[in-house]
Amino acid sequence: MNLLQKKFRPVEFIIEQLIKSVSFVSFAVIILIFLFVFREALPIFSQKEKTVPKEELQTGSYGEEPTIDLQNQTSNLDNQSKNKDEATIKNLLGNEWQPVGLEPKYGLRPLFLGSLKVTFIALIIGAPLAILAAIFSSLFAPKKIKEFIKPSIELLSSFPSVVIGFFALVTLATFLQNIFGYTFRLNAFVGGIAMAIAIIPIIYTITEDALNAVPKYYSEASLALGASKWQTALFVVVPAATPGIFAALLLGFGRAFGETMIVLMATGNAALNSLNIFDPVRTLSATIGAEMAEVVFGDVHYSVLFFIGSLLFIITFIINAIAEFYVRAKLMKRFRGE
Amino acid sequence: MNNKYLGKFIVISSVMSTLLILFSIIYLLLEIYSGGKNYLTFEFITSEPKEGMTAGGIFPAIVGTVLLVLIMSIICVPIGTITAIYLNEYANKKSFFTKSIRFAVNTLSGVPSIVFGLFGLGFFVQFIGAGMDKVFSTDGNLQWAQPNILWASFTMAFLTVPVVIVSVEEALKNVPNEYRAASLALGATKWETIRKIIIPNSISGILTGTILAVGRGAGEVAPILFTGAAYFLPHLPEKLTDQFMNLGYHVFVMSTQSTDVEATKGIQYATAFVLLILTFSLTSIAIFIRYKFRKKLIV
Q1: pTM above 0.90?
Q2: Where is the ABC transmembrane type-1 domain (chain B) (predicted)?
Q3: Can you name the CATH fold of B37-294?
């Protein structure tokens, strides 16, 4: 008899399998999110081929055929036999977002532009602050001060986004308008600054981790060679941690791109095709938040909102995947000295 | 590189950035407090909205929020804890299964909250709810296939599960391997070791995770926008198919969609303050517990 052989214990085995199957839930949820958000978006791709009579179009079609891009149809009469999904997809690429009306227009371009505008403003303002604060608390600050700063900024991450949005709506908007004197009280700039408050804790925490993960002997070697503290920080530690800082920026971007309540409350929600940062904007996420409650279930508008949701999911998914795989691999390589 | 100005610039700007962030935290807190301080009475917290929401308190919104996070915790804490135990105690770190679960957890924490809202609507309300109605409903009335507190809690639970997992895993990693080895050497099986040694020693992590998840769940609004939150309800939710009022949603609706935004400004500030204090104190407690127990386990 082999005493070292592992005894089979049925209870242990069952418990292990149970634990394993519960842990599968996270994975299943990701799949379900993808399937169900996309499922509701599907109708805009799978509409059957239908030709639309010219006369009916000119009088304006409503209800039955809301996705037909009228301009496209009337200007290219030869293409009348085009099937509907082409029309819908063309419509999605359009310049105007006017989901309600005689000729609904579902052009996503202004919404994309809006999301990008707010996100970049948030990053341009928030990222330097967060990274510099992380450099300070990781590399310069005395231990006591560091132990105070870190939890404080962690606390900032617990601020509900609806409270930050409320703050931006009632206080920040007026305050900034008095300084800059722009026309619209709520605009991309206000939303961007409020969003910066929301993404600073994320960028700070990940950057700080990345800076702390740089092996001690890097800075010790640098200091031993006569470099000062700030020279070590700027030319040794920060460059070594760049992949981590890059990951922090990516995750900050992902958070800002998908954040809803702040933009819903503070950006004015007008779908404009303008590059001016002081114009109101409507973002992808805010569009879902604002319009989903009023939409008819199963309508094209409903599907388009779910399509926007799928886009948000896919975009944040890709960004997180890049942050996860590419950056982690690069960090590992660097610190192993390969 | 002997440019002294560059060095000074780096140090000073990093100090200034830190101060600016800390200052904006304090300013935000003070601003919201001072806007609502005249309304912050005991009565405000314990009474119902009156006169078409222009007076009275926020009691139903507080009850709704508490119920939401309660049901949410019942779902997300066990799932999160068990997943963390699997990942840390059982999983073969290099297997494809483990890697995909880890990737799923990371992805889940990055999914925008509004997408969770859509998922809750598409999956729980339209799919599960409608399915349940088909099976159980006799009179053809919609019962489960509409937004309610149960579906909102489920939606919120999957949003907060990664928070629990990360916290519990950190605590599990903190349990020294000697504890496991000693227990196994005394003849305990793996499950006995987990149940009697590892879980009791990482209870602080489970607690931290739960509190952080509750704080997160109390503050999020986007996932419940279409899965159960209501603007005003004449009565408190009594069963799982009822809708509910919610603090965050209350702030949002009052400040953007009410007919007279100016008249209710004080109530809005006060509600925002109550919500802020709620999430703030929960997070502080969690940070405190984590800090206190971090250094405790030494062989």
Answers
A1: no
A2: 62-286
A3: MetI-like fold (1.10.3720)
